[in-house]
């Protein structure tokens, strides 16, 4: 018979926590799928425009930049693909990054009542986040596919890297979000700050304009790891080759380490967060 | 079977009185636990012991009633048993699969239909898709929602929601079952069904049952714990004793007096009780004897007396009126002594009285309430009656063929 012992000690073995965490992910596939289905069907059932809401913010943002560029209000360097496509891909991918970052804190907040009352593997909420991200990203990609066809862009072999790169980026941002959970669930400042931070970061990443040829911005963008993810994802979609394999490799390794580390912190801190949520 | 499935040893839990410090301590505790630092067992500023040094055991086949007033620490204890939060001191050992009836219908989304939500709720409770598919029909049957299965849950009545939630949870077959006040809602028919299901599970399960409904506690618990301010006051297999202690803890409202003031109650005494505890008379046999001295002003010619028995929820359960015995008192000298004997046909529980004098006018019309003392004559009935929520148990003559 399974025996559970609860006591106050904080001593834990890393291996055990990792094992438990892994088991948590493994056991909660069905639960996460079910909750994702619940959230998505509720979302779309209660909306007239439905799927369109996935595009509206992207189109709005892209339209602003297309207008600024076409009217000459801002002078941007020539992009390798039509600017409209460049902007739409950039903002779409960035919105996926952004969603990945905030997904967990949002899901935890929404499911507070369940978390404080029912004992289930909390890893389910991370998987839930992933499932919803994948679904939403799929919807958002429809717009890009439409534009790729419209601009008659021919894709190349590099498209096979698209999905792995996208999932890698999601994992990176989800891990960052997980690290913020212990503080973010206690203090709402984190939840308020993240969207602002992501907006700022967007301008330091080649989302709506190229990396400049020289100057401070060039240096900042080249130090920014998100630049590589974004640029390479755009390359795979527009028929260009993936260039920075080494950097991507490094990001992959750091992301895996970060995710493991974040999973440990998440599992260890969850009882304490639960306590303060219900208090 | 006598396996101990739940073992609680010296468990304490502290809470903070202020949100700011609570959050700050939370943050500190998170870092402490990630770094593996030993947490301090002492109270910090603004903290208090919400649970203090609690120990008990529950064996398979036992149902432990956990009772106490709001804030006694029952829910916190249950959360620790359920593994949601960790104790600050002591240790809890749980053997076997744990099921919790703490929040019915967890994970329901109001927009979605009952059918969809059965799957959501069941998934959260740990069922697999196959299990749910297999049990789906019995869930629907138990919930009795029939044709409304495909209606959004937001249009359900609260009773329907609870029924559906319980129906899903009732499919669990745990070794340990934690139940927190889930039976506070719904109608009687539903309660009976729930209690039957719990009784069905009992032989194979160790149950902890938190409730404010003493009839329910009497009905299914094999032993019980009374908690007050985080401490165990009483741990006993005598449920009757447990409940009378629980009622004695109630700080009943002070008496209130209303009326025109044309009469006064000089004295009011109960007698023939078995014993007195904390100033409350406990009746185990005998009739309820009331002796009252009253004064009525001379302008009043005739009057009548009511003694109304009310339960702890101030629900009247019986009336003893002089009028129903066709007695109207004549006010001759202004001073009266009233002796009244009421048969002890009440179910076990705590009661008090409204003692009321009313003026009787010409043609026996009822006039003003001259005086009404509410909340006097508190008494507890403890004669091991058949446990029920119904206030009066009639002594009858039965015959069978």
Biggest sheet features of chain A: none
Helix content of chain A: over 70%
- Rg from alpha-carbon coordinates of chain B: 27 Å
Mean pLDDT of chain A: 90
Shape of chain B: globular
Biggest interface and residues each: A-B, 46 and 56 residues
Note the main attributes of this structure:
heterodimer, A: 279 residues, mainly alpha, 11 helices, 73% helix, globular, B: 401 residues, alpha+beta, Rossmann fold, Coagulation Factor XIII, Chain A, domain 1, 2 domains, eight-stranded mixed β-sheet, six-stranded mixed β-sheet, 8 helices, 24% helix
What does the model show?
The complex is a heterodimer of chains A (279) and B (401). Chain A is an all-alpha fold and 279 residues long. Chain A has one domain. Helices cover 73% and strands 2% of the residues of chain A. In chain A, helix 6 packs across helix 7. The radius of gyration of chain A is 20 Å and the shape is globular. The mean pLDDT of chain A is 90. Chain B folds into two domains: 55-249, Rossmann fold, CATH 3.40.50.300; 256-381, Distorted Sandwich (Coagulation Factor XIII, Chain A, domain 1), CATH 2.70.50. In chain B, the strands form four sheets. In chain B, strands 10, 12, 13, 15, 16, 17, 19 and 20 form an eight-stranded mixed β-sheet that branches. In chain B, strands 5-6-7-3-8-9 form a six-stranded mixed β-sheet, sandwiched between helices. In chain B, strands 2-1-4 form a three-stranded antiparallel β-sheet. At the A-B interface, strand 1, helix 2, helix 7 and helix 11 of A face helix 1, strand 4 and helix 3 of B.
